[in-house]
Each structure stands twice: as C-alpha cells, then as structure tokens.
C-alpha cells in the first residue's frame, strides 16, 4: 500500500477545514430567528411594596 505524501495530508486538512468553516458560516448566517410579537409579550408586572 503506497504511502501518502505529507503535502497531500496538508492539502486534505486544508480542504476539510475550509469546508467546515464555510458550512458553519452558512448555518450561522442563514438562521433567521423569529421576531417577538406583541401577543407573546404579556408579562405580569408585580410591584413589591416594601413596608419599612
């Protein structure tokens, strides 16, 4: 079985690294989070009256 030259290992590592980086960037920038609407924002305001 022939040995693989070190430059080929380096080229293979660079190709896989660039592929991984591009894939992660695409996943990061394509994701569009849903914007909050007014019906989801019904918070209860509870006021604390401290009796000192």
Automatic annotation (TrEMBL):
Gene Ontology BP, a term: proton motive force-driven ATP synthesis
Subunit structure: F-type ATPases have 2 components, CF(1) - the catalytic core - and CF(0) - the membrane proton channel.
Membrane topology qualifier: Single-pass membrane protein
Transmembrane segments: 7-31
Principal place of residence: mitochondrion
Cross-referenced InterPro entries: ATP8_metazoa
Protein name, as recorded: ATP synthase complex subunit 8
Pfam families: ATP-synt_8
Subcellular location: Mitochondrion membrane
Family membership: Belongs to the ATPase protein 8 family.
GO cellular component: mitochondrial membrane; proton-transporting ATP synthase complex
Keyword field: CF(0), Hydrogen ion transport, Ion transport, Membrane, Mitochondrion, Transmembrane, Transmembrane helix, Transport
One GO MF term attached to the UniProt entry: proton transmembrane transporter activity
């Amino acid at each position: 079985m022939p040995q693989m030259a070190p430059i080929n290992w380096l080229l293979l590592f660079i190709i896989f690294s660039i592929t991984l980086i591009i894939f992660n960037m695409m996943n990061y920038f394509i994701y569009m989070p849903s914007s909050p609407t007014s019906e989801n924002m019904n918070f209860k305001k509870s006021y604390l009256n401290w009796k000192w």
